[in-house]
Amino acid sequence: MLLLLMGIVAEGDAQFASRPSHPMAPFIERMYEPRSKVIKEDTVRIKPRWFFPTHGKVQYAGSVGFLSVGLGYRLWEIYEPTLMYGHLSENFGGSSVGVQTISLKNSFFLTRSPWLKHFWPRAGLIVNWGNTNTTFKRLPPHYPKEYYFQNKVHLAPFWGGEWHIPVKDKHLTGVGLYFEFSALDAYLLEAIRTDYITLKDIWSLGLGVSFYFQ
Q1: Which residues is 119 bridged to in the sheet?
Q2: What is the pLDDT of residues 107-121, one digit of tens each?
């Protein structure tokens, strides 16, 4: 009986070993693969926290809010998604309407290496979800059909750049100072189909600071 049981277990192990590995296994192993880093001439082994954001941002203006903060990742060396929260109110930006904004900023590097060793030109698309008592995803019934453009969700293309400053710190690898010109889709549409607004009138300037984590 014992020999029979051992034979069944051995056969099961052989079948399990013969199964192909999961296609994501190499990628998952790389995420947890320790890496070496030199800190003050000492080499240390660091176990990566792949789920931890690679950067944080604090931004003034720029189609997201009077002031916004966010966290994000660096993917494939060219793409940087950042989830941001923006706030605008009477006491915080001088607006008569309070606005809470959740944004996904999709930023792409336009060059393989920085200009002047530190400046990275960028462009991308912001997806905004605004929440106020005057925003709506669908037109209220008392408005004529297609009379107003919905103002709950907006797309905002942007372009700009960031000056990256390397930092030697146990928590940070660098700090970036950036600017962005962005335009909401509703403004773009009005600039294209009417003569009241021109393309030079629709761009909003945003200024920010990026913090790149170890």
Answers
A1: 115, 163
A2: 999 999 999 999 999
Query: Residue 8 has which token pair?
Result: 């069944």
Residue 13 inside a domain? The answer is no
Reported as a pLDDT band with limits 50, 70 and 90, residue 154 is confident
Q: Which domain holds residue 85?
A: 55-213
Write the DSSP symbol of residue 22: P
- Dihedral pair phi/psi, residue 61, rounded to 5°: 60, -160
| Number of domains comprising the chain | 1
In a domain, 173, yes or no: yes
Residue 31's SS3 state is helix
Please check whether residue 209 lies inside any domain of the structure: yes
Per the CB < 8 A criterion, the answer to whether 202 and 187 are in contact is yes
- Residue pair 137/153 in contact (Cβ under 8 Å)? The answer is yes
Cβ neighbours of 31 (radius 10 Å): 12
Which CATH number goes with the domain that contains 96?
2.40.160
Condensed to tens digits (0 to 9), the pLDDT of residues 1-32 reads 444 444 544 444 444 344 445 555 555 555 55
Strand ranges, E, within the chain: 35-39, 42-46, 55-61, 67-72, 79-88, 99-109, 119-131, 153-166, 172-182, 204-213
The reply to whether 7 falls in a domain is no
pTM for this structure? Answer: 0.69
